[in-house]
């Protein structure tokens, strides 16, 4: 039996060497093109090499094979000696030993056949349902993919596992640590800077300008302006503006008295004497200055009341008067259509981007400080509030379930396609290197269990026969 086993191993080693030589001669492009292996498949798709750990495992498998085969030869030798002793009249014990060793040989051979049939054809014979791994590799890959999809990528399993992890609570405790909040803030700032750097100003400006223009065109602005003006007048918010305008008008009249009087004289009829025009101009200027001064100093001046009534009526017209609303809409279209306004809208993005980039780069900027404070607050809340934890867990579970249910076929096909791209012979040797040592224990156990079972059967048979 040892000679047969050795012969089989030598045949397999010879086949592997011949296959390696054929690969080197038949596919010379693998030597010049590192992206193509000897089997014609990309290196990322095929298992084409053994790591030092794999080689160590293969040596362990060979040692266990020698041990299992040696045990088989030992029970075979015991069987021969026991039968010789039994035929020589050594006593009843020889029959027990012969029965145990005979059953041990049967168990060892049966398990040898079963283990060998997983990886290759025993003794090279074309026995059906042998060499299962190399011949059924693709089917095993499909079955493995289906198994993973049904048992690991199901909605129930994903939800149960994530719920057991408690992501909301752990994330809250993690974010509540200042150093972790600083790290997340820095990463968010880097991402923001990267996104703002990648975006082209011209593209963003065009999008912003179009969005603002389209939004303004789609919505009538007169009623909104009317409501806002009505509230401002009712709250007296316009009075400061009136105060500012009147004060500036008074100061301007004081500084430009000669210009005002010259303008009034210039509008007088040509037939009036010059001194009369001068007197009229001075009188009009003094009255105008007095009016503006009284309006500035008297909050209850009648002109102020008239202005309040005007603004109130105008706010009402903006909301209800058709002609006023139509004129405002025409003015809006005209203003938005001007190139200066479009340039102003487009340039707003440049200012915003520059401000955001500067804030993201400055560790002490208000933006980063607020983000950090928000993260710390969120982490503290998440670590103690069950409702918030449940909400975060629900979001994570929903996202994970969506990915699993939507892309389960793609995920499982990755397993199937990867296994299908492996070289059958190399895959067989790789798998055998990883699990072959344990399988050799099956042979050893089969020898021991077979011997005990044979001994038990022999004892029972002797007892019933007696």
From TrEMBL:
<keyword id="KW-0472">Membrane</keyword>
<feature type="region of interest" description="Disordered">
    <location>
        <begin position="1"/>
        <end position="54"/>
    </location>
</feature>
<keyword id="KW-0812">Transmembrane</keyword>
<feature type="transmembrane region" description="Helical">
    <location>
        <begin position="66"/>
        <end position="82"/>
    </location>
</feature>
<dbReference type="GO" id="GO:0005886">
    <property type="term" value="C:plasma membrane"/>
</dbReference>
<dbReference type="InterPro" id="IPR007383">
    <property type="entry name" value="DUF445"/>
</dbReference>
<feature type="transmembrane region" description="Helical">
    <location>
        <begin position="94"/>
        <end position="119"/>
    </location>
</feature>
<keyword id="KW-1133">Transmembrane helix</keyword>
<dbReference type="Pfam" id="PF04286">
    <property type="entry name" value="DUF445"/>
</dbReference>
<feature type="compositionally biased region" description="Basic and acidic residues">
    <location>
        <begin position="1"/>
        <end position="28"/>
    </location>
</feature>
<feature type="transmembrane region" description="Helical">
    <location>
        <begin position="441"/>
        <end position="460"/>
    </location>
</feature>
<protein>
    <submittedName>
        <fullName>Membrane protein</fullName>
    </submittedName>
</protein>
